[in-house]
Amino acid sequence: MKSSKTRQTTANVTNSADKPYFYTTFAVGNGKTKNDKEKHAPSPYHRRTKSSIKKLFNPKKSIIMGRIKKGILGGISGKVGTVVGANWKTTSYIRSLPQNVKNPRTLGQRRQRSKFALVVALLRQLNVILRIGWKLFAKSQSPFNACTAYTLANAVKGTFPNFEIDYSKVLISCGSLAGATNGTASVANGDLVLSWDNNSGINSAEPTDTTLVAVINTAKSETIAQTTGVERSKETQTIKIPANWLGDDVEVYLGFVSEDGKEVANSVHIGKV
To answer: What is the pLDDT of residues 21-36, one digit of tens each?
Structure first.
């Protein structure tokens, strides 16, 4: 082999016992390399060091703090340094680690926590209907969270610690579909009877829109929620009331959802019955 076509490279590698070994590769004229096995056979230290590296970086035994699933530009899942990566629906985000501070329980914190607890206690009873009534706002948050934010800002009255729900401002559904007009509610033979005007043809209202109904017993903290109601054109609906509710005041709400489920109307608080 001609020296002009051969390039020799020698590397010095030190293992954990500080005993060096050497290996040599040759760049041959055709671009390939080969080890000079005769003069520089791999030592036991070489094999031992490779085995140690495999054990050190064994992914099954390593503690992984965070993963980047889609390359360096992908979303992060887990803790990385002082931030935590997470995913919500199709959105990836990072947030800082919480500070290790004691709970100061300031007046502002206690006021907000009191309002939040009051609102969540109410809306948990309505969750099944909120999934439909507030689904148009579920792109960056859940329907429940969207309704919670609205209720906190608009439907709580009073001062701390005596907050109350303003039932006239609660919305069980929210959207641009035409809502109910001239809605009424009455009790007959132990049933709750709802009625409204058929306003089909106004804006996007259709006779096939169906009702969303919620009846809240504020004394018992119980709720009747119906998501598969009657058509707008029927102008009336009867709700069966539990026997132990007779004599209790109830708050009644009426909304509409389009036949294909893509449009929702702002609900109407018919009133206390």
So the answer is: 444 444 444 444 444 4
CA dihedral 176, 228, 270, 133 (to 10 degrees): -40
Where do the domains of the chain lie? Answer: 3-54, 108-272
Q: Please write down the HEC assignment for all residues of 126-147.
A: HHHHHHHHCHHHCCCCCHHHHH
Residue 255 near residue 266 (C-beta atoms within 8 A): yes
Cβ 200 vs Cβ 207: under 8 Å: yes
For 137, what's the count of Cα atoms within 13 Å in the CB-facing half-sphere? Answer: 21
Q: What is the DSSP letter of 222?
A: E
pLDDT digits (tens, 9 = 90+) for 49-105: 555 555 545 555 545 555 656 655 566 667 776 777 776 666 666 777 666 656 778
Domain 108-272 coded CATH 1.10.20.10: no
Q: Which two tokens stand for residue 65?
A: 């703090």
**Model pLDDT, residue 252:** 98
Q: Where are the beta strands (DSSP E) in the chain?
A: 7-14, 20-27, 33-35, 66-68, 76-80, 83-88, 91-96, 156-157, 164-165, 181-188, 191-197, 210-217, 222-226, 236-240, 250-257, 268-272
CB burial of residue 34 (10 Å; 0-12, 13-18, 19+): exposed
Q: How far apart are CA 171 and CA 254, in angstroms?
A: 9
pLDDT for the residue numbered 246: 87
Instruction: Give yes or no for a contact between 23 and 35, defined as CB atoms under 8 angstroms apart.
Output: yes
Residue with structure tokens 């290996």?
23
